[in-house]
Design a protein that fits this description.
Radius of gyration: 29 Å
Structural class: alpha/beta
CATH class of the largest domain: Alpha Beta
Distance between the termini: 77 Å
CATH topology of the largest domain: Rossmann fold
Low-confidence stretches: 1-5, 501-511
CATH superfamily of the largest domain: P-loop containing nucleotide triphosphate hydrolases
Shape: elongated
Strand content: 5-15%
Number of helices: 21
Number of domains: 4
Bound molecules: adenosine-5'-triphosphate, magnesium ion
Length: 511
């Protein structure tokens, strides 16, 4: 039993009990798990004679109901608890009771009365609900406990009792359990019933199915979005300093390094010119480190669809920590926190931003934050303070060697033949172009050629290059500002270009 109370939720409940709260609000989904937990809390709190009564609108108090006074009505249930002996060592779970608060002000009153009636006694009442529906006027009387998600070992226990689990090697079961962190035990039960049916599935297929299911659930329940596998570092042209930084840390998020207590990098911030691969690099880290990529959608946090922004943010980061290890991608920080206004003195969303800073400092090291920013001058200086991010990288417009690499990658990706291109010449023709613009020129070339039913070639690309004015020409001033700002604040993601522009590689066949 003491082992059970290692459980974080139980510890939170105990804190409320020690403060003599008689009414609790339990926020969570898994009712079976909730009941098991409360039974063990009751025994540990009261000793062996402690017990749990459970009420629901469909069964009343079940066998404990008095046939002469049925309690299917929530008000009657509250009245019944209130009339009971408050010296009895018991806990009462009233399932879903908060769902009636909106429609029934008398019930809200009933719960307040119950609080005054039970205060100082031994009976404790738990109102459970998967949603937070706590009326303002009850906030002072009710102790709120949000159930933690099942731990890896709870998930493993649940998996082990699913039919078909015996056919699956124990270490595979363990990895599947790790992949399922973040799901409720009911969800684990349903998903494993499907996955363990019939002939055992290959592990990779099983893990992919788990990721897919988890992605859907995360999206429904929080402001997190699980991304499908992303391009690898090899798909990024140039940015050699950045890639090396990522590669040299690839093993740190393994189980072994975790057990050996190697300190983990907390996060990285990519700043710089639009279209130079900031978002792409953030995503590629997940692939390089073999971790799931999850995006924190700040516009959803601020939208109010998931409760107050403070609540939505706290919940999203908590879930992120519970399903770690992962790369948490926070894109365009200045927009995310409302610092993007062009008006001077834009304060941004100060509350959420300071929660973010605190969280960055306190978070579980197994959540690696990959953040990006464009208009960095607008971000408050404290974000850049040492210790918040392990490294700040500046992504500049690609140099000639990098443009060559980027061209090579995109020509190949779009099915072009490298022998039809003189990459040195093309790299020289795209000075001042961002990676995104180069990609766009290749894409347009492909479309032009497709209309004529042939493979695209260098001439198609060059035609598109000539027709386009790169952003850097129209935004010269802005880019200069960014550069002078990051100078000495961040390290360059690129290595300096090799001297002698044409020597960067063997020239490919001429046009
Ligand atoms: N170094 C690069 N190598 C290969 N492709 C690149 C590179 N940089 C940019 N690209 C291409 O440009 C696309 C856009 O890049 P990305 O979205 O990462 O830029 P960004 O810096 O996040 O821009 P923004 O600030 O506008 O969001 C990428 O998906 C990729 O296809
Ligand atoms: Mg981006």
């Amino acid at each position: 039993m003491a082992g059970r109370l290692e459980n974080q939720t139980a510890r939170k409940i105990l804190r409320g009990l020690q403060s003599h709260y008689p009414v609790f609000y339990l926020l969570g989904w898994d009712e079976d798990r909730m009941e098991r937990l409360l039974r063990s809390v009751a025994r540990s709190y009261y000793g062996e004679d402690g017990h749990l009564r459970v009420w629901s609108a469909s069964h009343g108090f079940g066998a404990d109901d008095d046939p002469a006074a049925p309690t299917a009505d929530p008000l009657a249930a509250v009245a019944r608890v209130s009339a009971g002996p408050d010296a009895e060592p018991r806990m009462v779970l009233l399932k879903d009771l908060p769902t009636w608060f909106d429609a029934n002000p008398a019930l809200v009153r009933g719960v307040r009365d119950l609080y005054y009636r039970l205060k100082g006694g031994r009976t404790v009442v738990f109102l459970s609900c998967p949603l937070l529906k706590l009326p303002e006027i009850l906030k002072k009387e009710v102790f709120l406990v949000e159930m933690d998600l099942p731990t890896e070992s709870e998930v493993l226990e649940q998996l082990a009792v699913t039919r078909g689990a015996q056919e699956i090697p124990r270490d595979q079961l363990f990895r599947v359990a790790a992949g399922m962190r973040g799901l409720s035990l009911n969800e684990v039960g349903h998903l494993s019933a499907r996955l363990f049916r019939g002939k055992p599935m290959p592990e990779a297929e099983m893990l992919a199915a788990v990721q897919e299911e988890k992605g859907q659930i995360l999206r429904k329940e929080s402001c997190l979005e699980l991304y499908p596998p992303q391009p690898s570092l090899d798909q990024i042209g140039g940015l050699e300093n950045l890639k090396e930084w990522v590669r040299t840390r690839a093993d740190l998020f393994s189980e072994k390094a975790w057990r050996d207590k190697v300190p983990l990098p907390a996060g990285v911030l990519f700043m710089g010119v639009s279209g130079c691969g900031k978002s792409m690099a953030a995503k590629a880290i997940a692939t390089a480190w073999n971790l799931p990529l999850v995006r924190l959608d700040m516009s959803l946090v601020l939208s109010g669809s998931f409760g107050t922004p403070e609540y939505a943010f706290a919940r999203a980061t908590r879930i992120a920590e519970e399903i770690a290890p992962m790369v948490l991608w926070v894109d365009e920080l200045e927009n995310a926190f409302g610092f993007d206004s062009h008006a001077a003195g834009s304060a941004g969303n100060v509350n959420i931003f300071s929660s973010f800073l605190t969280w960055l400092q306190e978070k579980s090291p197994r959540v690696f934050v990959a953040a990006t920013a464009n208009r960095i001058q607008q971000l408050p200086a404290e974000l850049m303070r040492k210790g918040r991010f392990d490294q700040l990288f500046f992504l500049d417009l690609p140099n000639v060697d990098e443009r060559k690499e980027i061209l090579r990658i995109h020509v190949l990706r779009h099915g072009g033949h490298l022998e039809d291109f003189n990459l040195n010449y093309m790299a020289a023709s795209t000075e001042g172009w961002s990676g995104a613009e180069i990609e766009q020129a290749v894409k347009s070339a492909r479309i032009d050629a497709y209309r004529e039913d042939r493979t695209f070639n260098q001439r198609d690309v060059i035609r598109n290059v000539i027709d386009t004015v790169p952003l850097s020409r129209t935004m010269m001033e802005q880019i200069r500002e960014i550069k002078s700002w990051v100078f000495q604040r961040a390290i360059n993601a690129s290595r300096p270009e090799s001297s002698g522009k044409g020597d960067a590689g063997p020239p490919k066949a001429a046009e």
